[in-house]
Write a structure and sequence with these properties.
By secondary structure, the chain is mostly beta strands. Helix content is about 10%, strand content about 55%.
């Protein structure tokens, strides 16, 4: 159960809400959901022995901050990964508001552990746990810490065009960065299907559909999502990779009448320095169209970061 915010935290959020025109707690949740790691199965673009050359190994946290690394070939996947990263970002709409937007810069640090184990040639079990720290320059009201964990099964269907169907459970917990009070908790159940299309030795496409149900505390943020996504991955050189990703989701909030059409477009470029160190630049555009005007917004953010990954 989520603990109640302290009196000082509630007053701070109320004052900030008055200046921004929206609830910062809601904005923080949506910001974290958009930028946090999306727990997904690894996509296999070719079988062992294929002539296709897999993309170079990268950081398992590459898909943090909206960059969905769903297109990389994985002929051999190390079963365990420890990862950490720190990134600096700027945004033109820190509170995710429709009007009277405010810009800010912020730091995001992440660290975690993931494991992947093949149960059979076509069935894979994935586990992940991750922590995150968000610190803002001008608007400390949005400072928060996050704890995420997930488990999922993915099944590759050789007789159905090698598409992959996956089922996942994810847990998220958000805490106020100043008071350490918990203000959001989520249990997400996801079902989806994905297909990867290798085009050449350096280019891949992927597309999929997914739906999820979120049990949240507070109940006002509980919702059902259904949507589709597509992306392209390009290995520009042996060390330089680029990804372009788009996702649309229709979001139905179970408490109240709020209905959102959410779109996210992400462009990321990663340079692999060594097999354990990479530098990444990410830009993402979010457009949210809601039947409740206060939740309609456009936000553009971009930044650079350094990631460390030890696979074993």
């Amino acid at each position: 159960m989520v603990r109640q915010l302290s009196v000082a935290a509630v007053l701070s959020l109320a004052v900030t809400a008055g200046s921004f025109g929206a609830d910062p707690a809601v904005s923080s949740v949506e910001q974290a959901q958009q930028m946090g790691t999306e727990f997904r199965p690894a996509a296999e673009t070719q079988d062992a022995g294929s002539d296709a050359v897999p993309a170079s190994e990268g950081d398992p946290d590459d898909d943090s901050f909206g960059s969905q690394q769903i297109l990389k070939g994985v002929e051999h996947i190390p079963p365990f990964d420890c990862f950490a990263g720190i990134s600096a970002f700027v945004t033109n709409n820190v509170a995710l508001t429709r009007k009277d937007t405010h810009s800010d810069s912020f730091l995001v640090a992440t660290f975690g552990f993931s494991a992947s184990r093949k149960i059979t040639d076509t069935l894979t079990l994935d586990l992940t746990t991750e922590g995150g720290v968000y610190r803002y320059s001008r608007y400390g009201e949005f400072d928060m810490d996050s704890v995420d964990a997930g488990v999922g099964l993915s099944y590759r269907m050789p007789k159905l065009w090698d598409a992959t169907v996956y089922a996942q459970y994810g847990y998220s917990d958000l805490l106020d960065g100043r008071t350490n009070d918990e203000f959001f908790e989520n249990h997400a159940f996801t079902l989806g299907v994905e297909k990867v299309f290798p085009i050449s030795r350096a280019l891949s496409l992927a597309a999929g559909v997914s739906g999820d149900y979120n049990f949240t505390d507070p109940l006002g943020l509980q919702r059902e999502d259904v949507g589709g996504y597509a992306g392209i991955h390009a290995a520009l050189t042996s060390r330089l990779e680029a990804d372009l990703y788009y996702r649309y989701a229709f979001e139905v909030y179970t408490e109240g009448s709020r209905r959102d059409n959410n779109q996210v477009l992400t462009l990321s470029v990663q340079y692999t320095v060594t097999n354990w160190l990479s530098i990444m630049g990410t830009t993402y555009l979010t457009i949210n169209d809601s039947n409740e005007e206060v939740y309609s917004y456009e936000a553009l953010a971009g930044g650079v970061g350094v990631n460390v990954n030890i696979a074993f």
